[in-house]
Amino acid sequence: MTTTREHGAAVEFDGVSKWYGNFQVLRDINLSIPQGSRIVLCGPSGSGKSTLIRCINQLERYQQGKIIVDGIHVTESHRSLDSIRREVGMVFQQFALFPHLTVLENCMLAPIHVRKMSAKDARALAIEHLEKVRITNQAEKYPSQLSGGQQQRAAIARALCVRPKIMLFDEPTSALDPEMVKEVLDAMVALAADGMTMVCVTHEMGFARRVADRVVFMDGGQIVEAAPPGEFFDSPKNPRAKSFLGQIL
Ligand code: ADP
Ligand code: MG
Q1: pLDDT digits (tens, 9 = 90+) for 195-219
Q2: Does 46 sit in the ligand 1 pocket, CB within 6 Å?
Q3: I need a labelling partner for 103 at 20 to 30 A (CA). Which of 8, 41, 91, 109 fits?
């Protein structure tokens, strides 16, 4: 069922559990993400971070509980799927641009097919977002002609062209050479400054300190700590969070 709510969280997890076969990957996730807020999700590899955010835009299904995205109950119906994909943009670790299309064409694709925009309007929108991530001069190139950092910024621009209300990032800088990490983080900081609701899986703790309202730490499919960044980094309460920070900082 689809309902619309005037107010409320951008994303709400209510007792969500998920299994891959017999393996329980998410355990009773309760998380409320207010509109305009920025969540950084961290935790050891295999703790369920990717699975959690992929449930938000229905790349994964869940078996128990409820996820509400901007008033839409995330179910398996096509109606919910179509609405969710319009509301939620996602940027992955691997850049996932279409290799046979130029950067500009990559950005124009969804506005034309999903938003039913004219090519002219889609082009203007694409250029606007390519300017925001500062790669307008790469618009006519193919992904393989770009650096990793440029490709990732193009992927951010492409996601923004759908005009999502929520942006999900799954380790967007992990596959980048160190000198390119900053340009991608800068684009994400600018997006946060624009007021976008963001859920970012990242171990870039400088970014988390600067941008996050709340750091959510997962371990073994559970949220074991959630706190503002200052509190989380300076005095983590959970022993597993403490030892995790010891390893990465
Ligand atoms: P993270 O992003 O925190 O590294 P993931 O959400 O990718 O964690 O994975 C959590 C756990 O679920 C891991 O143990 C992983 O092996 C397992 N897993 C992920 N995807 C699948 C899948 N499609 N089928 C079975 N197990 C999976
Ligand atoms: Mg992951």
Answers
A1: 999 999 999 999 999 999 999 999 9
A2: yes
A3: 41
Name the pTM for this structure: 0.94
Query: Confidence band (pLDDT; 50, 70, 90) for 85?
Result: confident
The full set of domains in the chain, from first to last, is 9-247 (3.40.50.300)
How far is Cα 22 from Cα 20, in angstroms, rounded to an integer?
A: 6
Q: If you measure from the C-alpha of residue 45 to the centroid of ligand 2, how many angstroms do you get, rounded to a whole number?
A: 7
From the CA of 51, the nearest ligand is 1
Atom of ligand 1 nearest to the CA of 20: 25
CA distances to 6, 77, 116, 211 from 234, rounded to whole Å, are 37, 43, 48, 16
Looking at the CA of 92, which ligand is closest? 2
Residue type, 195: G
Residue 70 belongs to what H/E stretch? none
Q: Is the CB of 202 under 6 A from ligand 1?
A: no
Q: Is 61 in the pocket of ligand 1 (CB under 6 A)?
A: no
DSSP labels for 85-144? HHHEEEE-SS----TTS-HHHHHHHHHHHTS---HHHHHHHHHHHHHHTT-GGGTTS-GG
Between the CA of 45 and the centroid of ligand 1 the distance, in Å, is 9
Task: Name the 3-class secondary structure at 178.
Answer: helix
CA distance 192 to 209: 13
Report CA(52)–ligand 2 centroid distance (Å). Answer: 9
